[in-house]
Specification:
6 helices, Glutaredoxin, single chain, 29% strand, 7-stranded mixed beta sheet
């Protein structure tokens, strides 16, 4: 499992882009993780699935509500990562009103989840291999804080916890 001090694994995440620009076409666009995190502080949170109860009612809304405070604490971007395709993540982002606040990053094949070692096997519930629920602060591609939830829990990966850690990191 990835640890504080480790570099994020190399790979690609996908984001559904609503408006063409900055080299991005409308629809799913690939983003190289190393390039996208270079020189930035990223508040990254991951969850088991789009449109699921805790994720939709608590996890994403908390980060949308705290987006300005996280930026004031030195965070350049907020990423929500889930094992869903970019179309689903785009639709969920529209429903959750994340535009300009949280980037909805798709890990459709669970490659990123596997590479971090933060997977959750929900095959018995018909959901297959998913990401565990967690949050982390990433500075220039290196994990500075990591908050991994226990099974079925939502206690340490929330926006308020990561905001407190971002403020502490900023000093």
């Amino acid at each position: 499992m990835i640890q504080v001090g480790d570099k994020l694994p190399a790979g690609t995440l996908f984001e559904f882009v609503e408006v063409e620009g900055e080299g991005c076409s409308i629809g799913p666009n690939p983003f190289d993780i190393a390039k996208a995190t270079a020189g930035k502080t990223i508040a990254l949170f991951a969850l088991p699935g789009a449109f699921t109860p805790t994720c939709s009612a608590k996890h994403v809304p908390g980060y949308v509500e705290q987006a300005d405070a996280l930026r004031a604490a030195g965070v350049d971007e907020i990423w929500c990562v889930s094992v869903n395709d970019a179309f689903v993540m785009g639709a969920w982002g529209r429903e959750q009103q994340t535009a300009g606040k949280v980037r909805m990053m798709a890990d459709g094949s669970a490659d990123f989840a596997r590479a971090t070692g933060l997977t959750l096997d929900l095959a018995a519930r018909g959901l297959g291999l998913r990401s565990n629920r967690y949050s982390m602060l990433v500075v220039d591609g290196v994990v500075k804080t990591l908050n991994v939830e226990g099974p079925g829990k939502f206690e340490v990966s929330d926006a308020a916890t990561l905001l407190a850690q971002a403020r502490q990191l900023k000093g």
